[in-house]
Amino acid sequence: MRLLPALLALAAARPLACADSHWCYDIQAKASNYACLGPSQWGGDCKKNRQSPINIVTTEAQVDPNLGLFSFSGYDKKQKWKVQNNGHSVMVLLEDEASVTGGGLAARYRAKQMHLHWSEELDKGSEHTLNGVRYAMEMHIVHEKEKGTSRNEKEAQDPKDEIAVLAFLVEAGSEKNDGFQPLVEALSYVPRPKMNTTMNDSISLLDLLPKKETLRHYFRYLGSLTTPGCEEKVVWTVFQERIQLHKDQVPRTQPRVWPPTAQFPTPFLWIPTEAPWTGVGMGHSRELPRVWPPTAQFPTPFLWIPTEAPWTGVGMGHQGIHRHSLGWTRQVWPIPSLV
């Protein structure tokens, strides 16, 4: 189960997704009219037994005296981080600037990237659940084991913990989290895949986390990546203390996933497909359509067709106003050789 609990009825004959194929999460598969491969079609190790995420049942957790406090290095360094929409989520590039030891980890782990998981509904965004409860969002800080820092040779060669992920559940409430706001604002600048931006304000990783003294309470298990091919090489740490955000700071729209052969043509013609049929318009892929006559309403849904090469896709869409920017959602399907 990835991101949302809904199960999709997908044709059994469809191919399994591997790490380099066009995969997506449930909600993205639905939005793309199943042009991408949802979790039930993922291949690789995704059908094995030690898969993530999991439901953490606190009454069944056992105290491990070998797990201690974490030691964070570089987590307090403030900078304007680079933010990237990779088509599946929004990722912050950490560029080896921070690392973590302790906490029962076998070596030093270097921070590579941080990403977010969320949903259109506030109570369905997290990947992990705590006693069956799913939270508004989940933040993962992904680390790789640093060579030469293991406590012994056996641990250095252990493939089960090549990656260490620090996972934080995010709870939506009524108070604004000022430390998180620069990242929230950056999301509005990367609404589509392959878009990049840099935060306007400098923040540290510690600015995003709960208070440091609360990070002594966490759950630990060996699991997998939560993306294809789901390799079982991750030591997971899920912190008990939640990050608190105002509900308006939690994104609700998912990154759009496009078929690999579909380009985003510009400009395009769009025509309403349902009443009120009050206008047609010309538009550009990075701006709202211009509608004629001037009194025309924005009809919804609509059909849009490219008017210049490359003519590689047509699509259906729905006009709307999003949380961070004016725009409209689109679904694109490639069409063969029109030019």
Automatic annotation (TrEMBL):
Subunit and interaction comment: Interacts with SLC4A4.
Protein name: Carbonic anhydrase
Record keywords, A-Z: Cell membrane, Glycoprotein, GPI-anchor, Lipoprotein, Lyase, Membrane, Metal-binding, Signal, Zinc
InterPro entries on file: CA_dom, CA_dom_sf, Carbonic_anhydrase_a-class, Carbonic_anhydrase_a-class_CS
Family: Belongs to the alpha-carbonic anhydrase family.
Role this protein plays: Reversible hydration of carbon dioxide. Catalyzes the reversible hydration of carbon dioxide into bicarbonate and protons and thus is essential to maintaining intracellular and extracellular pH. May stimulate the sodium/bicarbonate transporter activity of SLC4A4 that acts in pH homeostasis. It is essential for acid overload removal from the retina and retina epithelium, and acid release in the choriocapillaris in the choroid.
Leading EC class: lyase
Compartments, as annotated in UniProt: Cell membrane
Signal peptide (residue range): 1-19
Its membrane topology: Lipid-anchor; GPI-anchor
